[in-house]
Amino acid sequence: MHNDQDIPKQKPIQTAPPASATSARVLSQLQTGSGSQSSSTDQSGPKPVEPLRMDLLEKLWVTMSETYGHRWTSSFGESPRTDHAWAKHLTGLNGKHIANGLAQLSNLDNDGWPPSATQFRCMCLQIPGMPTEAEAWEQALRGEYSHEAVQIAAKATGTFDLKAGRTTDKHLRARFNRAFAIVRARAVMGKPLTEEIPEGIEHETKTPMQVQYAASHRQVRDLITAQGLPTDPKQARALLLAKMGIKRSDTHA
Hints:
Helix content is about 55%, strand content about 0%. By secondary structure, it is mainly alpha-helical.
C-alpha cells in the first residue's frame, strides 16, 4: 500500500480552478490500485501492451475536469470515450503512471491550460530524480552521477573515453545517448537497470534506404561520366536541344 506521501499534493494551477477533494480521492485511488497491479506484474513478468482501462480514463477525466474546468471540457469533452485521442495516447499506461502524471500538474507551466495528451504521457513516464539527456551527458563527462541510470550508461559508454571527451564530441555523445535512453526506458518499465546493454553498430549511421539511395546515385553519376555527358545542368540542356535540332537564343535559355 502507498501512503499519502507518495503523491505530492496538487497546488492551484495559475488561473485553473484548484483540485477538489474528489480529485484528491481519485488520485489516491489511482496510486493505491496501481500498487497491487505493479506487484503482480513483477511476479508474472512483462505483459503485452494494453490500452488504458476505461475506469482509469474516467478517473483522469474527473481530476482534469475539476482542475481545469471549462478549459478541459470545452477542449476534450465532459466524458471520456474509448476512441478518444487521449485513450489512444495513453495506451500501455497503468494507474501508477496516471497518478504520477496528475501529481506533476502543479509544476506544469502552461498558462493555466491543461496539457496535451502527448505532453501528459511524458509527465506520466517521467521518473523523479532522473536528469534530462543533456544533464546526464554533462554529468557523465564530469564523472558525477545524480541517478544510477547515468552511471550505468556512462560505464556502458566507457568512463575512460568520457573522462577524456569533450562536450562537442558528437560521436561519443551519440554512444552515451543511446545507452542512457535504453537504461531510462528500463527505469520507466520497472525493469532492472543493470542488465547488459546490447552493443550498437558504430559505423551504421544511415538507414538501409539511405544507403541504397547513395549507391544508386553513384551508379548514375558513373554512367553519365562514362558516356561523356555533361554534368552541368545548362550544358546538358544545350546538348539535348542540339540533338533535337532546336535552336534558342540565350534570352530563352
